[in-house]
Amino acid sequence: MREFLGVTVHWMERDAERVQLKTNLLACNRFKGSHTAERICDQFEAICDEYNIKAKLDYIISDNAANMRKAFTVCFPSEQEEDDDDAGDNVDDPELWHDLTLEDQQTVDAAMAKKQRLQCFAHTLQLVVGDGLKETKVACPSLSKLSKLSSLLHTSTTFKDIFTGEFGEHRGIPAAVSTRWNSTLRQVKAVLHFDQQKLCAVLEKAGHKELSFTPREWNLLKELVDILKPFGEATDLTQGEKVITISAVVPSVLSLNHHLEKLKSQVQVSLTGLVRDTVYLKAAALDPAFCLLWIEPHVLVNRDIKAEVAQRVKELILQDAAEMEQPVPVPVPVEEELDDMEGEGLFAAYHKRQKQDVGTPPAVQLSHYIDMAEGQNALLFWALNSKTLPSLFQVAIRVLAVPASSAPVERVFSHGGIILRPHRAQMTDRLLANLIFCKCNAV
Known about the structure:
zinc-finger; RNaseH-like_sf; globular; HAT C-terminal dimerisation domain-containing protein
């Protein structure tokens, strides 16, 4: 097995009359030796230096593994007061992947605040739901049977023949992956599509009666789907690459928390601390699909505190707008505008031109935006209103370009797995890295 370090870059670009999310792979290089924080940091810095983008970075998104979290406390050492000695960390050490102690977490978080490092939301949900499933002792026997049933279906040709004879060749039960909790959800959904009595009859006929589900276990699986379905939706929603994802984080957390509040007697899962950076609040507010509507139904506090939350979000946006505010453009005379239209097409003068905002304060723009937001697609909305809301537009394209998860890098590794097939096992690391680079950056 070969280890690689992948780095992708994400930004939002205005092209003619469109606003598009852009993604490129910067590098997917072979990573030999121990996976210590300092070595990860060195490679990351080398990639940033190669493209000369270190000063342009706003946020760094990575998973929550201890070495990755520590890596960005020693990254950009000129800003770091002290370095951690991670020489003893090794990727094969199981302790490496455990959560940090509370004291270490506070130290790491304080350092990361300077680097604007964000946790991968999908990985955070993985940890939350994974811990919840481990603590759900009553469902463990049902999930264990399901896992064995899926394994049997993929390894035993005898059972496979009996199974397909009853249910058809296009029916099956997918295998679960330990690092993807939603694969367990898909597995449970798949088995529930079968008739319980027929499935038990097939298992008994094949000599595996011990894997049959009792009515109680079958009902527990149904309840599990009802509980985890919203978590699956949130995971899928925040792992996109061609769509804005970060704006869905805060509404997802609030909706999940509201969902769990209704099931408090059945489940015990904590979502506290999933959102720690203000960029999530700004992103949710600047996406017209959500705006500030998420505050009213699912923020479980009184109206005065809700008003304070809304005001605080507005202040954060206005603060960023003030920092990025550009000089007020000088109005162009109508005659000059008409002259500029020449050469743009036969009927260019007939087209309705978007009004250019020449001095509306950001606060007024924000008020107009809140009135205009009615669930529109964010990319289309900001493409149409970039000139009427110029100050907010500058904040929006910077905030909404941030991905909610590190899923784009995971897809890079998937491409690498497809390229490096068994019959290509002798492929050199450099050739593999170049092929992945070309595949992921193909226009």
